[in-house]
Amino acid sequence: MKGGWLRWIIPAAVVPVLVLLAYGFWTNPREIPSPLLGRPAAPFVLTTFDKAPLTLQDLRGKVVLINFWASWCIPACYDEAPALERTWLAYKDKGVMVIGVNVQDTEEPARKFLARFQHSFPNAPDPRGYVAVEYGVYGVPETFFIDRRGRVRFKHVGALTDETARKRLDSLLEEPS
Amino acid sequence: MIRLVLTVLAASALLSAEAPAAVPVDERVVHELAAQLRCVVCQTLSVADSPSETANQMRQIIRERLAAGETPEQVRQYFVQRYGEWILLAPPKEGFNLLVWVVPFVGLGAGLVLVVIVLRRWSRNPATVSSTPVDPAMRERIRREMSGGGHP
Q1: Would you list the domain boundaries of chain B?
Q2: What stretches of A27-157 show up as alpha helix (H) in DSSP?
Q3: Of A1, A8, A71, B124, most Cβ neighbours within 10 A?
Q4: Three-state SS for A156?
């Protein structure tokens, strides 16, 4: 057999590169696993748009949904906004707290956004980006689910739907407190 | 007036004694750290190079943590613990990540070896060609022409 092993060199070099490329195309680059899952949620103190203090530590014992958003985040933040309000209304009497954290934004458009979607759950700006960095936020919208013991349990990247919110909250509410 | 100045000085001394002393921050260290971190809202830019507001806030967090007395490695770990190793522009040289550092050199070495092997094969080939059998009639004709006994 003339050529011997040499004829296999090119496929041997090309196939792994193609496999790597295929893997790259099949995976979603936005789905970066958060190292925070299972770890205690970072405490924070913010002041809501209504000038009320908002402290995560005060919510221990509740399941908390923290949504990071911005008024310029089109369309994802606009798509999920009605679902967030519906989720809040459906779960606020079941031991769930929904919190909005407004990042990389200015006050006026953020207030317009809240007025447009009539959000009735607490929303607070994070003007220096501390809370966003504490939660490893790299884009908006991102939503974190905190269990009753104060641990980060799920992270959702992109627009949140009623179904995803319900599924996550129900599973955390089923857990013993 | 002197009493007022003394009171102000005493008050400021008291305040500075109560507040934790801020460590002077070397901007070169801030830049060096920021250059190792990926700007989370950009494509392939470091926190040092990005003009985005997020990168600006991250640089400020680096500055404040250094001022609070953290070492550059502690500040780096602060970001890694929140974003994962994804935040580092250069993956650490350990575990599975070693592949990223080793494979290019292995590939280069293998390529060089391949080039050497192929060149050696090519340089052997002329000998193979010359050993192919030649038609005896042609051989006789060449011999005659070389010895000058050809056409008149």
Answers
A1: 19-90, 96-146
A2: 76-91, 107-117, 130-134
A3: A71
A4: strand
Tell me, yes or no, whether A90 lies in a domain: yes
**Most distant CA pair in chain B: distance in Å?**
133
B135: pLDDT confidence band, cut at 50, 70 and 90?
confident
Q: Do the Cβ atoms of B82 and A36 come within 8 Å?
A: yes
Contact B83 A138 (CB under 8 A): yes
Q: Which of B82, B85, B86, B99 to mutate to test the interface with A (most CBs of A within 10 A)?
A: B82
Question: Which of the residues in chain A have pLDDT under 70?
Answer: 1-3, 29-31
Q: What pLDDT score does B14 carry?
A: 41
In terms of CATH architecture, what is B19-90? Orthogonal Bundle (1.10)
Q: Which amino acid is at A34?
A: S
| CATH number for the domain harbouring residue A133 | 3.40.30.10
**Which residue in chain A is spatially nearest to B52 when comparing CA positions?**
A104
Look at chain A and report how many structural domains it folds into.
1
Model confidence pLDDT, tens digit, residues B39-69: 988 878 999 999 999 999 999 999 999 999 9
Predicted local confidence at residue B151, as pLDDT: 55
CA-to-CA distance for A131 and B36, rounded, in angstroms?
A: 21
Tokens coding B17 = 């004694």
Q: What is the mean pLDDT of residues B97-101?
A: 77
Distance from CA of B83 to the nearest CA of A (A): 5
- pLDDT of A30 reads 65
CB–CB of A130 and B61 under 8 A? yes
pLDDT tens track for A62-71 = 999 999 999 9
Give me the domain span that covers residue A164.
45-174
Question: Is residue B19's pLDDT more than 90?
Answer: no
Q: Which two tokens stand for residue B104?
A: 């290019």
Query: What does the mean pLDDT of chain A come to?
Result: 92
Beta bridge partners of A65: A98, A145
Tokens, residue A159: 């627009």
Q: How far is B123 from chain A (nearest CA, A)?
A: 15
CA distance A129 to chain B (A): 6
